Amino acid sequence: MANVKTGLNSIVKYLSTKKETGRRSIGLLVDGPNVLRKEFNVNLEEIRDVLKEYGNVKIGRVFLNQYASDKLVEAIENNGFEPIICSSDVDVRLAVEGMELVYNPTIDTMALVTRDADFKPLLNKANEHGKETIIFGVEPGFSTALRNSADYVIILDNDEMNYYDDMHPQEESGNGAKDGEFVRSSRNKKDALIDY
Q1: Cystine design at 173: which of 4, 24, 94, 120 (Cβ 3.0–4.6 Å)?
Q2: How does strand 55-65 pair with strand 24-31?
Q3: CB of 195 closer than 8 Å to CB of 42
Q4: pTM here?
Q5: Superfamily of segment(s) 8-188
Q6: What stretches in the chain show pLDDT beneath 50?
Q7: Is residue 86 within 8 Å of 66, Cβ to Cβ?
Q8: DSSP 102-171
Q9: Residue 55: beta bridge partners?
Q10: Which residue ranges make up each domain of the chain?
Q11: Residues 172, 101: Cα–Cα separation, whole Å
């Protein structure tokens, strides 16, 4: 079993130990229809706050389909993100924007919030071009292929934020965490939750 750390400070510390000299420039892309659902309770403000400890979020885009409510769009804007309304397939638009980040020389790190294995080639291409990759996956249904393709993995599961790091194995976690997962305490910023 992996070494288990708890609390938001643990995740912030985890990412801060990974940063190189200077602040990282981060491009964050969120797969709205896939993760912004009541059953997942994804908190975009908390994701942004965790990434701010690691670097500067230069690009923050949330991709939505044409059925997104005005209330959702407003909530995304209020959280400091750019909503992108897609009249066709959201995954295609997100992948195109992701490739733009891969070739953007001012972005060091690409962060994705999704569960969808369709974005594995995007992560692979980013890694191939020297970009760091962070994936925020949502359980249940988080793709193992995505988990194994990113440099850093943070798992959102039942109002908990965990980070996955197979670099620190230990015999027993003591709190039921899966091998390699680091458990974070329950989130309490319910006012910032967004529902698709």
Answers
A1: 4
A2: parallel
A3: no
A4: 0.73
A5: 5'-nuclease (3.40.50.1010)
A6: 1, 166-196
A7: yes
A8: HT-TT--EEEEE---GGGHHHHHHHHHTT-EEEEEEESSS--HHHHTTSSEEEEEETTEEEEE-TTSB-S
A9: 24
A10: 8-188
A11: 39
